[in-house]
Amino acid sequence: MDHLFSPAGLANSALHRVDPRVKTVSILCFTALVSTLTSWTALLFGASFLVVLGALAGLTPLYFGRRLLWILPFGGVLIAVLPFAVPGEILAGFKIGTHPIGVSKEGIMQALILFLRMMNAVFALTLLTATTGFRGLMRAFRELRVPLVFVQLIEFTVRYIFVLIEETRRMMLARRARAFRTGKSLLDKRTFLTLGQLLGVLFLRSGERGERIYLAMLARGLGNQSIKRELVWPPTRDLGWGLGILTFALALRMLETGGSSWQTLLK
Amino acid sequence: MANIIEVEDLHFRYRDGTEALRGLSLSIRKGSRVAILGPNGAGKSTLLLHLNGIYLPARGKVRILGREITAKTERWVKSKVGLVFQDPDDQVFSSSVWEDVSFGPINMNLSAEEVRTRVEQALRAVQMEEHKNKAPYHLSYGQKKRVAIAGVLAMEPEIIVLDEPMGYLDPRGKDNLLAILNELHRREITIVIATHDVDLAAEWADRVIIMKNGRTLAEGDTSLLADEELVRAADLRFPVVVEIFRRLPELNLNPLPKTISEAVEVIRAELKHASWEHF
């Protein structure tokens, strides 16, 4: 978790120094634009662009690859199912009982596109978090007027996830100390009951902790401040970076809408 | 010296019907070191929340620096009375030490420059300035406790109230905290702690308030901790030093020593006496 948000790569690359707000806006727009691409070549260009930017910031392709692996368990299932689920020209088939199952060409293509889109999104966010860091990102969100409650929700989650993990670990330990065996199937009634209770207690404790945190915040005068933080316009150099990233995504999008001409060019 | 905290006939009932305070009265002098003792459920934590204006008196009065705490003054009192919670994880909630310590001063609407100076001073006072950019989950329990105290110090309160300050701290952590409290005392900040630790109270406090069932059982100096009737009534126990000398009635000591230094003095005197007799 810590790894997920801490800055990585060169400590002080040009990209690291770009105003967090500019980076956030440009990279999020990049992600949105690139996600609408439908050709795999354009998508590959998008991903390569991000890897090149990453390299400038001292991030290795391996670093990006590792982040992609993290997300694969979620998106991977869908990608694996698509070739079987999309109707079209059957490339290979087999039967389960009397039911024929086939891998379609269209399905493989769609799975590939989906994978590439996911790759672009993960690479883009990796680039953003690795060159901005958690605190920079949160500051950017605040200054971009993301509703405060959302920003606080993220901040509190990150702050307290460790406390909760530690609490769960202690509770598990206390149960194991009294001969509770983990690793049994959830279908085992006692295991289910014990883990259910543990989860319940965790919720209750979190609720109580939440209350105490709130009191502690009140004790230091929460709700008293009128935010008068002056917003400074980002430097032109930073805006240039943002514009560059956006232009690349826009160019990919326009070239693709521009039709097949450029694809034939590549062939 | 004037009373900096005055509580008169304070009552408080929680929503679930628990009567936490039932006519509590006490007074605390400016610059003193006060230990509030009492069994679980005596109402100590509820009282502390009243001192900072988080809870307003349902009945009775709380006066801080001569001003009564009401809905009108509860904001003011938060900058006068700093409250340090028992579990630093409840208090230190920001994603970096610096941000957390600046939370209070920002809420006080101080200028950016003033916030910076105060945060720096507060972190220096608890010797945490080199950790200012760290995330709280990278700190030890004792370090988090010190950040919690810095977060309160940065508001420059005249009174600091700590709930069970030594809980879960290792010996080094306790020593560090004690040194910080002594330094604050030297700066004439009034310090109030709520604790079960009778040894800490005997060693550190110059005034003791004993609570039970939401009322004050006794107020006075640390000799209260050697009072058998009181100690039994309040479900406490004697400080270790007192306990040792209680078992040595042949020494005919009155009053009994309560701190380690007093004990050492008595033992040294006895040794000297014994060696004289030997000759």
Could you say which overall geometry of chain B the principal axes of the C-alpha atoms support? globular
The number of distinct β-strands of chain A equals 2
What characterizes the major β-sheet of chain A? 2 strands, antiparallel
Radius of gyration of chain B: 21 Å
Quote the distance from N terminus to C terminus of chain B: 50 Å
Structural class of chain A: mainly alpha
Number of domains of chain A: 2
What is the CATH superfamily label of the largest domain in chain B?
P-loop containing nucleotide triphosphate hydrolases
Largest interface (CB within 8 Å) is between:
A-B, 27 and 31 residues
Describe the structure.
Chain A has two domains: 171 residues, no CATH class; 72 residues, no CATH class. With 267 residues, chain A is mostly helical. In chain A, a hairpin with a 2-residue loop joins strand 1 and strand 2. Chain A has a two-stranded antiparallel sheet with strand order 1-2. Chain A contains ten helices and two strands, in the order αααααββααααα. Helices cover 72% and strands 5% of the residues of chain A. Chain B has a six-stranded mixed beta sheet with strand order 6-7-8-3-9-10, sandwiched between helices. In chain B, strands 2-1-4-5 form a four-stranded antiparallel beta sheet, with helices on one face. Chain B starts with a strand and ends with a helix. Chain B is α/β, with parallel strands linked by helices. Chain B contains eleven helices and ten strands. Chain B is 40% helix and 22% strand. In chain B, a hairpin with a 5-residue loop joins strand 1 and strand 2. The longest helix of chain B is centred in the C-terminal third of the chain and has 19 residues. Chain B has two domains: 236 residues, P-loop containing nucleotide triphosphate hydrolases (Rossmann fold, 3-Layer(aba) Sandwich); 41 residues, no CATH class. At the A-B interface, helix 6, helix 7 and helix 8 of A face helix 2, helix 3 and helix 4 of B.
